[in-house]
Automatic annotation (TrEMBL):
Annotated Gene Ontology cellular component terms: Golgi membrane
SUPFAM superfamilies, sorted: Nucleotide-diphospho-sugar transferases
Family to which this protein belongs: Belongs to the glycosyltransferase 77 family.
EC number: 2.4.2.-
Protein name: Glycosyltransferase
InterPro entries registered for this protein in UniProt: Nucl-diP-sugar_transferase, Nucleotide-diphossugar_trans, UDP-D-xylose:L-fucose_XylT
Segments forming domain Nucleotide-diphospho-sugar transferase: 120-336
Recorded topology in the membrane: Single-pass type II membrane protein
Subcellular compartments: Golgi apparatus membrane
Species whose genome carries this gene: Eruca vesicaria subsp. sativa
Amino acid sequence: MLETDHNKAFAKTMAQHKSFSSSPPSRSSVLNRYISLLNGFLFIVSILLLLGVFLPWSGSALFPFQNTISSSLPSNWRDYSLSQAAEFVAKDGTVIVCAVSYPFLPFLNNWLISVSRQKHQDKVLVIAEDYATLYKVNKKWPGHAVLIPPALDSQTAHKFGSPGFFNFTSRRPQHLLQLLELGYSVMYNDVDMVWLQDPFQYLEGSHDAYFTDDRTTIKPLNHSHDLPLPDRNGVTYICSCMIFLRPTNGAKVLMKKWIDELHAGSKAYEGNDQPAFNWALNKTAHQVDVYLLPQAAFPTGGLYFKNETWVKETKGKHVIIHNNYIIGYDNKMKRFQDFGLWLVDDHSLESPLGKLE
């Protein structure tokens, strides 16, 4: 009896299943199935877009220097202003600035490695002199480059003393003044420099402007930090490639005078903005509180690379090495290589930009 009832129930169930499977699906069930498939497809696409867009921008253990997008970072960095860029990178009211054209990206990367070793890379702002540099840096390191029109030619590595070099460097005081007006302290570096120690520990006191002497004459270790006396021609020889400025009235006066000097003597200064900087320093000496940084810590290239005895005597004191007193892209690179200061080949992953292709 139980077996017969079981067989009947089984037969009834199979008949119902056959009837259900053989009947065509309703329009609503087909529509629901398509909607379900579409939702699944859109979900997969969304995940892929999230991975493709946000992973390159986010920090990870493999890429420790890449920043997470901040609400202060404009959605279109191609158009953002110097004030927006400075707000994004500034730390403790300070911005480290360099100005770079595309051919010098390897030198930028070399400098950044040395800055990163001193843990100051996050406050670096690259003023891109051309759109190729702007795109390259912000693709690798979002938010750390800004372009202030007009853009320059991106293909030429301008040599010291050339009109192109002057067009490149003569805009420097205007950029620095704008940052001071925004209330930031600013350290400016040329990218043919290498940091061996943290330079901020040498910015003693609360002076308006800090700079280095570009002469090769050896100073005593306890030399004066005042502006050096002018030579027989009435000029000093201060380097305009490493400057630290506080957002004071004195620093702004100095930048404005530098700009005035460049405009007034553009033909005389063509190819080199440094004489104008020195005239500005001398003409504003009674208005600006200046500080000459120690020579042993911030030597000119004409001393560091050419006086082996002095280098040995001051070993351990060197902070920033400037690869000047030599002209030419390839010559600068070779000298860095000869002295073990070309870091890009073996240490590119220490740079926020990584390995440049």
